[in-house]
Amino acid sequence: MKRFFVISFLAAGYVLQAQSIGNSPYASFGIGDVKYDNTTDINAMGGISTAYISDFTNSYNFTNPAANINMELTSIKVEATNENNFFKTNFDGTKVTKHSTYLSNISIAFPLSKSVKFGLGFQPYSSKNYSFQNFETNGTVTTLNTFTGTGTVSTVQAGLSYQIIPGFALGLRSNFYFGNLFNNEEITNTDATLINGFETRNRIKTFDFTAGTVYQKKLKDDHKFTAGATYTFGATGNTVTAYKNSTYFNGPAGALQDEFIIESTIRKENNLFPMQASVGVGYGKEAKWFLSGQLNYKQGQSAAFLGQDFQYKDSYKASVGGWYLPDFNNFRNYLQKITYRYGAYYEKGNLYLNNKNINEFALTGGVTVPFGGKVNAASSLDLGLEIGKRGTLQNNLINQNFVNLKIGINFADKWFNKRYYD
Questions:
Q1: Residue 364 has pLDDT above 80, yes or no
Q2: What domain of life (predicted)?
């Protein structure tokens, strides 16, 4: 029986099933389609976060836990994302559109003292939800390959920031990852009654740490220069990967009947969450505008996938973005109090398929709308938009265009404050 490695789904001849692809078909590899990012306001600025210290007192930066010097209020954030993906291949002009909406962030953060700030949050990290098929005819025999994948990995993150001297801080963040992922390839032939199945299950319970630093220099006329860096150590726990190659019949309700196991292995890995690093610089004017550039690096790694080792490449990402606030003190025109955000990024992805890198590019934008007309020390509504593309039509690959909408509510107020009496 001929075995097709799952990478072949990207070749011409595969039909994307419009009713069953939940997210990008590129999610079939490794950890899946990564959903993890920072808050809506930072995402709207192209993802710049390493050298981003909010001018205001009501927001916590999880990506660089050191960059929370100005935070003075307790902040509770609830955020959601609406994804709209448009896939296209050159095979028969096949086009597929998929939509999904999910809760993307819940967090709480507050100052422990003037110099120490703490944040705790929950986010989905990655997901798989795909299904597609390939037919191949050789003489009178037709072979059908069916690929399916499901599962979600979530993360609980905790960050601590400590300002050593005015303008200079260090931070540490820990992420605990948990979840289950499932990938399956089934091969059936018209001249055979048995199904050959190749199954991989990942049970994930692991964690990593991110160290960060930031420095901000105040200049004349309320201008400022900011520089930051982060380093994420590889995961220190283990991921249990179970692989099974077997033959069977499909019984009622999808149950396997008369299963004969050809090969079965269980191994522990810790390479699904590799080392990462980032550096960034920024320049702006207090409570008026800010512009930043950032470079990210993610180390490549090898991961077990359907009985074979799949190699991720090193990936690089360049981001630029910032914000603009027309008039902080304008009490007559509410639009002047809205913070307008903008950005863009380009990522050389870690997938290398059919002699092509699977890269990604996007333009981002958004607004932060203060409640009650207040900008500083107040709750707000964050809206974000991300428009971009991933992949290519070359070499029989898949092009993915996407339009993502993000919304977040930040409830900010003075909590846990000590009271002083004369």
A1: yes
A2: Bacteria
CA distance 185 to 200: 9
Strands (E), 72-194: 74-88, 95-111, 116-138, 141-165, 168-189
Q: In this structure, how many other beta carbons lie within 10 angstroms of the beta carbon of residue 81?
A: 22
pLDDT tens digits along 155-196: 999 999 999 999 999 999 999 999 998 888 888 887 777 888
**pLDDT confidence band for 228 (50 / 70 / 90):** very high
- d(Cα 53, Cα 212) in Å, to the nearest integer? 13
Place of tokens 């050191």: 66
pLDDT at 404 over 80: yes
Tell me 254's DSSP state.
Answer: G
* Calpha distance 159→209 (Å, rounded): 10
The reported pTM is 0.87
CATH class for the domain made up of 6-413 = mainly beta
The whole-angstrom separation of Cα 209 and Cα 173 is 6
pLDDT for 418 equals 52
Q: For residues 336 and 363, is the Cβ–Cβ distance under 8 A? A: no
* 3 state DSSP class of 323: strand
Partners of residue 310 on adjacent β-strands: 303
Question: Tokens 């304008």 correspond to what residue?
Answer: 330
User: Mind giving me the DSSP string for 329-348?
Assistant: T-SS-GGGGSEEEEEEEEEE
User: Which neighbouring-strand residues pair with 230?
Assistant: 212, 278
State the average pLDDT for the chain.
Answer: 85
Separation of alpha carbons 44 and 55, rounded Å = 16
Neighbours of 218 (CB within 10 A): 11
| Residue 410 Cα distances to 110, 295, 315, angstroms | 13, 28, 32
Q: Where in the chain are the domains? A: 6-413
Write the DSSP symbol of residue 10.
G
Measured distance CA(341)–CA(326) in Å, rounded: 12
The pLDDT-based confidence of 53 (bands split at 50, 70, 90) is: very high
**DSSP state letters, 346-387:** EEE-S-EETTEE--EEEEEEEEEEEGGG--SSS-EEEEEEEE
Of residues 70, 191, 72, the one with CA closest to residue 137: 191
Rg of the Cα atoms in the chain: 24
φ, ψ (nearest 5 deg) of residue 41: -65, -40
> What was the pLDDT predicted at 312?
82
pLDDT tens for residues 70-85? 999 999 999 999 999 9
